[in-house]
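Section: Multi-chain targets

For targets with more than one molecule, the full set of components is provided together so that the structure can be written out for the assembly as a whole rather than chain by chain. Components appear in the order listed by the source. The example entry contains four components.
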Amino acid sequence: MRENGGEYVSVPSVRRLPLYLGFLKEFKRGRFEYVSGTQIAEHFNLQSIQIRKDLAVTKVKGKPKMGYKVDELIQAIELFLGWDNIADAFLVGAGNLGMALLGYERFDELGLNIVATFDSDPAKVGEVFYGREVLPVEKLGNLIERMHVKVAILTTPAASAQALADLMVGSGVRGIWNFTQVVLKTPPGVIVENVRLSSSLSVLTSKLKEMLDSERPRIELE
Amino acid sequence: MRENGGEYVSVPSVRRLPLYLGFLKEFKRGRFEYVSGTQIAEHFNLQSIQIRKDLAVTKVKGKPKMGYKVDELIQAIELFLGWDNIADAFLVGAGNLGMALLGYERFDELGLNIVATFDSDPAKVGEVFYGREVLPVEKLGNLIERMHVKVAILTTPAASAQALADLMVGSGVRGIWNFTQVVLKTPPGVIVENVRLSSSLSVLTSKLKEMLDSERPRIELE
DNA sequence: TAGATTGTTAATCGATTAACAATC
DNA sequence: TAGATTGTTAATCGATTAACAATC
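Its structure, encoded as tokens over all components, is:
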């Protein structure tokens, strides 16, 4: 991941920035003007050097002994992530997960605004969830073009994921937040970020299995 | 992550295993007996050497020229992840996201069975979702003990997350799939796996911002 | 001033990739 | 047999951590 004027920024660093952002917003409520890398590190059980490295991508300069200006950091992280300007997004797939995302009320803090939902199921089309009507997928391509929507959240069944991705990309979508199992094929210039809950769960269960197995009393071999 | 009789297994490898598993199950439907690392690699746009390294953790031996036995791999991955025995789990927090997870019908394939849901909101308690009644959190600790439940899915608001984690761990929970923003403090011997949707979104938006910025025509500086 | 904290450069650690012998 | 693929050891790449001078 290359950005910020040729400076290399690692994906793990980018993934940690929203955590810091949440903490900083909370911290700000305590009316603190400055925050040190050490304080952030303690909260997340990380090394302070990692915090300093991560924050360096924002180009914010801290003061020795004082730390970083909280407000400055918040703004700089939001700027870096592109969360300072809220982008319109379409939600495609009005199933369980799609509806849960639609109901999340703080996407504006994550730089996103879900302006419409689409589904292929005629039974769902026309229904209103969280103040937004479900539109037929037939209108998806046209609306992407007309509204210049660049971000789509894909929460459909696997079977229709690739065809919808093709349609959306053809209409101008440049970023897909993909909650399906499908490995989407997209042309260069389109960003796909996959959310794989099964990957997360696999880390939990394999660690848990290892731990519980290691505790299990076993018959002594000779 | 140390397992499998002292062999080191990396977290990224573990995260890829469920992807392979899904592909293998699909592949099996095509009545293929063997699958090569090359075939899996092509499907996921990965290097075949990475597939071979990842699959090595399962201890399954492939045959040169032939590949790996599909059935054998499926079983070995499920065994490694602990998905061969389905564990009972409690869902704590009957909000949007919690309900979406409850509605997911294939957790058995991921080694999990959500047997009960809990919420602190009296308005939700007693309601039935997807065939399961929402129970009051007051019963949580007691039921964890009585049913020997080891896994909990935490989807509550941030404010109550830590207190509930303490309660659950005190009652015998050893693994928490944490969907809240909170950095949970737990004693050694308890596994916490965090799902951070904001981290995923941050990768998408920062890459997208970089890409769109690089395309934007700009005034030439002399 | 003294000392805590930043920011940079170097060292270490871990994951991915390359090379290649073994083999079906 | 010839050749594709596995499995292992070595090399490379990238991320984290250590060290330490700069400085408020």
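DSSP finds eight helices and eleven strands in chain A.
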